[in-house]
Amino acid sequence: MTSIIPSSPADYVAGVDYITCTARRPAMMAALLSLGQELVYQEGQIGGVRKAWYFHGFAGQSAGQVSAGFKSDGVCVRASGAAARDSAAELISCADNVSRLDLQLTVRASNCTLQYAKDEYRVLNQRPRRKGGQLEHSLITSTYTGDTLYYGRRVSDQFGRLYNKSAEEKSVEDPPRWRFEVEYKRAYAKAAAARYAASNKSPGWVAGTVARWFSDRGTRPPVSDLALGAIRSDPRGTAQEAARLEWLKRSVRPAVIELAAKYGWPDMMSLLGAPMFYSERYVNETLSGPEDV
Fold it and tell me: What pLDDT is attached to residue 195?
């Protein structure tokens, strides 16, 4: 069994990795559809291919990591990856129901080697069988995408995965990053979404929830209780994040500057719900500078 080791906050990231939500009430339908369409548009602006999307009677569009559609009595929006991480809280606030929510904790620790999933699988098989049977688990090995250890059945309301994230992304790292991921469905997803929203999008809450889920099933992630309080969200230094920031800079900045000139930066920041800890001189010099061409 892997022991808990001390580590720096940089070794861990946590957040929402996937969400499916719906709205049935007219006011909520309008809000969720508007948000979903805006997210699809943003994905298209950063390179996502826009195409028709159909899902359980819903019809709409998808682009990149977001899909949004509607039918006569409802709206559905799905998001994954960075889009889910960035928009989950807002999607939850616009939804009547969340039918799926995936939470992830990604760890890079010196004692989580390439054999980590195999080692944990061996430990699970050595545990004494409890009354009523044992949680189903299976190990899938791959030279190209790395090893994956599954906890439970995919059709269950709760389902877990432990996999080599570095290998999945074709990134050579030693030791590799290992992702602990919990997939909640139906009532479990709705309850987890409410708790996530109440936590104010806390990466620490996500990390603690995922760590407890796996610990209850025989695999304790190598993160101390002390480190859980310092967990951060996923890094934003990827090419996709750079494209998102570039889209904001070119498409959103002009409107913000125009409104700020009319209402003033304090009121503008307040209306946007942005933190007020900023330098007005810096904001004006940065955002009012010449456009890149």
Answer: 96
